[in-house]
Automatic annotation (TrEMBL):
Keywords: Cell membrane, Membrane, Transmembrane, Transmembrane helix
GO cellular component: plasma membrane
Locations listed in the record: Cell membrane
Entry keyword Transmembrane: yes
Membrane topology summary: Multi-pass membrane protein
Name the record gives this protein: Permease
Protein species of origin: Roseibium limicola
Length: 338
């Protein structure tokens, strides 16, 4: 009885909700003065993402209830290159940070979109959007802002092409963990072969919609809540000055170090430009600054926690590898051009 209870407790502690409780209790015990700020940061960040979660969950439920997943997947057949290009371009315009993009990636996985197009969107989306472009231009100049926008789309195209090649070679056969949605929807209309967009008139499709809403909402909420608690810890306990000391300087080695340091460091697209402007004034190379900014947006710890929940380890490793390689190459090219 005791052994079973202990195993149950350990299993709960390893779940996202259990880890959130453990982390917050530890902060409350060890650093009580910071507990309110950490909790408020996590809550505010989650509430900022909540509209995207609601939209994505409703969209997944609607597509599954309508039987549109196979229909959408067929729309990409024979058009993978076009899908990669459109996904990379759309990702460069979409106003999503590295965590906000997760619900939409979950939706694309749920409806069977090609992994190559998903990766193109996934890599390019956190890097640039209209507000970030203006903020970056104000702090670092238009050459840096335009360069980042170009690298965002290029990284999406590069990642999508690599994944497409790997998929054709037999890799990534089953990318999703298959935990974000139920095994199947209702299917298209047996008469027309097309999705039934007005699903609410069918009781079975209404039940499918409700099931999808509950399962996807529970999954995304718990993982994003965990991701934002991690983010709050990073903001509270990793000072920006420490990051500045590590990535200062010029040269190829500094670009690589900047990309590796940028991965776990949390500096969002609104905070990073002013800080990097100060670092450049103190002697940091522009290539290292570009590598740091790209790696930090693509591979921050909060984003990686959410990525891990969606895809299998091979896809997770590919995402990280493409993000780091893309950041280093972007830094090298930018350093040479500027």
């Amino acid at each position: 009885m005791l052994a079973t209870s202990l195993r149950t407790a350990l299993r709960m502690a390893r779940s996202p909700w259990g880890l959130i409780v453990v982390i917050l209790v530890a902060v409350l015990i060890l650093d009580a003065p910071r507990f309110p700020d950490i909790g408020q940061f996590a809550v505010n960040a989650f509430l900022g993402t909540l509209p995207y979660v609601v939209f994505a969950v409703a969209l997944i439920g609607w597509l599954k209830a309508a039987g549109a997943e196979a229909y959408i997947a067929r729309a990409f057949e024979g058009r993978e290159t076009q899908a990669i290009v459109l996904a990379a371009l759309f990702g460069g315009l979409a106003p999503f940070c590295s965590c906000e993009v997760i619900p939409f990636v979950a939706g694309l996985l749920a409806v069977g979109a090609p992994l190559s197009a998903i990766m193109a969107f996934w890599l390019s989306s956190p890097l640039i959007d209209p507000p970030t472009l203006l903020i970056t231009a104000g702090a670092l100049g238009w050459s840096f802002a335009i360069g980042k926008a170009i690298f965002a789309v290029t990284l999406g195209l590069f990642g999508g092409a690599i994944i497409a090649f790997g998929t054709r070679a037999g890799a990534f056969a089953s990318p999703s963990r298959n935990t974000t949605h139920s095994a199947c929807g209702c299917g298209a209309s047996p008469i027309t072969g097309r999705p039934v967009w007005g699903f609410w008139s069918d009781a079975v499709r209404r039940r499918t919609f409700g099931t999808e809403i509950r399962s996807n909402a529970a999954f995304l909420i718990k993982w994003l809540a965990f991701a934002y608690v991690l983010e709050a810890l990073l903001v509270a306990y990793v000072p920006a000055d420490l990051i500045a000391q590590v990535v200062g300087g010029e040269g190829f080695g500094t670009i690589v170090i900047a990309a590796l340091v940028g991965m776990p460091a949390y500096l969002n697209s609104y905070v990073a430009p002013p800080l990097l402007s100060g670092l450049i004034d103190q002697g940091m190379g522009v290539g290292a600054a570009m590598a740091f900014m790209i790696a930090g947006a693509v591979s921050s710890i909060p984003a990686m926690a959410a990525v891990w929940s969606l895809v299998r380890p091979s896809v997770f490793a590919a995402y990280l590898g493409l993000g780091v390689v893309g950041a280093v190459l972007s830094g090298i090219v930018f350093q040479m051009v500027v």
